[in-house]
Structure formats: structure tokens, C-alpha cells
């Protein structure tokens, strides 16, 4: 049976390694093709305003040569809107962006940015992109995402993953409870629920077990792990951990 939990593979950090030296190696477009062969359902790329990893040429290359959907992550700026409208990726995830941060450290405040973000959701939606808002697991943010007309949200699961990796079990349990509540509430009001950020082999299980989540977007860990066993192996292992967690949650296999 095909899995009902999609895996989006983020190739930003292939470009990070390439950019450390300049030149063209390793090529994120080649990594995206390999990810597709390994079982990724979609490719994710974040075109940052400072172009620290993915470049405009990478985006063109991804649009031209991958055979699975592309999700473009972008800040809510007019420059990015223009690029997204030109390239017409399958999906667009709107993320907060601060230049001084190393990665996307928190979710969007959709409630506070309502009018501004609605313009993005409207224009991208009219262009047939599946628009998602990258938010903290918070009911107000889910309500706000629905009210601007976004069909999907991606829940930031980074705090849960970080706490689990730091062996802070109580904090991890609290973060997970918030994610479970947000996923269930979000689905009940009609939003498509995705999850992402900080996911590893050790943290993916409880997230994948949440029945309302239909897509996980994973990057840094998969690319890092590929150094040791190859991209094919890191993606296949993640896929199988996701599928097993989901099957166990349904009672289809024993733990
Ligand atoms: N989802 C979103 C919206 C992100 O901004 C990122 C980081 O680029 C990811 C998922 C992937 O996070 P990670 O690289 O930690 O797996």
C-alpha cells in the first residue's frame, strides 16, 4: 500500500556544501534526482534572501529536471513572490526569515501578519500553488492560517526534536503534546497538516505516528547522514521509520 505520509526531502544543504568551495559540486539538482529515486515524494528548497545555499539557477534547474513536485520555501517578500509566480512550483511554504539566524528558528506569526500574508496566499493560490504557513503548534496560528485562505500549514517540530535529542524527556513530551493537539485541531478545521524542522532518525517516530500529519519535510539530518551511508540509504531508512511508526500507530504491526 502506498504510504499516506509523504516525505519531502530538503536539498538546501547540498548547496551549502557546494557554496563552501564555489563551483558546481555537489549539485543540489543531482541530489534531488537521487532523492526522487530513493523514494522522496517531493523536493523542498528554500531560496533565502541572502542566497546562502539555494541559488536562482538551482531553482530553475529543479523546476526543469525533477519528476516529483517541488515545494519552494520562501519569506513573504515581493521579490520572492515574483520568483514563485514565475516558476510555479507545486507548493509554496511561507517561512519567517531573519538574516542573522542559522536556520528557520521559529514559526510565522500569521495572526499578526494577517493582511500582508493574505496577499501572498491569494496570489500564490490563484497561481495554483498549494500554500502552507510554517507555524508553531498553536491554535491561534492555525485559525489565522485558515482565515487567510491557506489550505495547509507546516507545524514547526524543532523544539520537540531538540528537547528529545538533549534528553529532556519532560520538555519533549510537552512539545509533542502541543504538536498532537495542533495537528488534530488543524485537521478538524480543514487544514492539511505538514510537519518539519530538526527531524532525525531518533525523533521521527512520534511525529510520524500523528495520524493527521500527511507530510514531513526533512533536510539537514538526511544530507548529513548521507555522508556516512549515502543519500539513498539515509532517505530509505527515514522512509521506513516513518512508515513503521505510522503502521504501529494504526495497530497494523507490533512495536
Ligand atoms: N520545513 C521548513 C519550513 C524549514 O524551514 C526547514 C529548514 O529549511 C525544514 C522543514 C527542514 O528542516 P531540517 O533541515 O532541520 O530538516
Summarize the structure.
The protein has 255 residues and is of the alpha/beta class. It contains 11 helices and 8 strands. An 8-stranded parallel beta barrel has the order 1-2-3-4-5-6-7-8, surrounded by 7 helices.
What does this structure look like?
- The protein has helices spanning 12-21, 28-38, 56-65, 78-87, 114-126, 139-147, 158-165, 169-188, 204-208, 220-229, 231-249, and strands at 6-10, 42-46, 70-74, 91-94, 130-135, 152-156, 192-196, 213-218.
- It has 11 helices and 8 strands.
- 49% of the residues lie in helices and 16% in strands.
- It is globular, with a radius of gyration of 17 Å.
- The longest helix has 20 residues, at 169-188.
- α2 (28-38) packs parallel to α3 (56-65).
- Strands 1-2-3-4-5-6-7-8 form an 8-stranded parallel beta barrel, surrounded by 7 helices.
- It has a single domain, classed as TIM Barrel (Alpha-Beta Barrel).
- It is an alpha/beta fold.
- Bound molecules: pyridoxine-5'-phosphate (PXP).
Count of helical stretches: 11
Large-scale geometry:
globular
Largest sheet: 8 strands, parallel, barrel
Mean pLDDT: 95
Report the CATH C-level class. Answer: Alpha Beta
Strand % is 15-25%
Notable features of this structure?
single chain; 255 residues; alpha/beta; TIM Barrel; 8-stranded parallel beta barrel; 16% strand; binds pyridoxine-5'-phosphate
Could you give the topology of this structure?
Layout: E1 6-10, H1 12-21, H2 28-38, E2 42-46, H3 56-65, E3 70-74, H4 78-87, E4 91-94, H5 114-126, E5 130-135, H6 139-147, E6 152-156, H7 158-165, H8 169-188, E7 192-196, H9 204-208, E8 213-218, H10 220-229, H11 231-249
Parallel strand pairs: 1-2, 1-8, 2-3, 3-4, 4-5, 5-6, 6-7, 7-8
Helix pairs in contact: 2-3, 2-11, 7-8, 10-11
Residues 10, 12, 46, 73, 93, 95, 103-104, 134, 154, 196-199, 217-221 line the site of pyridoxine-5'-phosphate (PXP).
Amino acid at each position: 500500500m502506498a504510504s499516506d505520509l509523504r516525505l519531502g526531502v530538503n536539498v538546501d544543504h547540498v548547496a551549502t556544501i557546494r557554496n563552501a568551495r564555489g563551483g558546481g559540486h555537489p549539485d543540489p539538482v543531482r541530489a534531488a534526482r537521487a532523492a526522487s529515486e530513493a523514494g522522496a515524494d517531493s523536493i523542498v528548497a528554500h531560496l533565502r534572501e541572502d542566497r546562502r545555499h539555494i541559488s536562482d539557477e538551482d531553482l530553475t534547474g529543479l523546476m526543469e529536471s525533477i519528476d516529483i513536485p517541488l515545494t519552494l520555501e520562501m519569506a513573504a517578500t515581493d521579490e520572492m513572490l515574483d520568483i514563485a509566480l514565475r516558476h510555479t512550483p507545486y507548493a509554496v511554504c511561507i517561512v519567517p526569515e531573519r538574516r542573522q539566524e542559522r536556520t528557520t528558528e521559529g514559526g510565522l506569526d500569521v495572526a499578526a501578519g494577517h493582511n500582508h500574508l493574505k496577499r501572498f496566499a491569494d496570489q500564490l493560490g490563484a497561481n495554483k500553488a498549494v500554500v502552507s504557513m510554517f507555524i508553531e503548534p498553536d491554535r491561534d496560528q492555525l485559525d489565522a492560517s485558515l482565515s487567510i485562505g491557506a489550505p495547509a500549514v507546516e507545524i514547526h517540530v524543532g523544539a520537540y526534536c531538540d528537547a528529545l535529542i538533549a534528553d529532556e524527556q519532560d520538555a519533549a513530551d510537552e512539545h509533542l503534546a502541543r504538536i498532537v493537539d495542533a495537528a488534530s485541531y488543524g485537521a478538524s478545521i480543514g487544514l492539511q497538516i505538514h510537519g518539519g524542522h530538526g527531524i532525525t532518525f531518533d525523533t521521527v517516530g512520534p511525529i510520524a505516528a500523528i495520524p493527521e500529519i500527511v507530510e514531513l519535510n526533512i533536510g539537514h539530518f538526511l544530507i548529513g547522514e548521507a555522508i556516512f551511508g549515502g543519500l539513498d540509504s539515509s532517505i530509505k531508512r527515514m522512509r521506513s521509520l516513518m512508515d513503521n511508526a505510522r503502521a504501529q500507530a494504526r495497530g497494523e504491526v507490533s512495536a
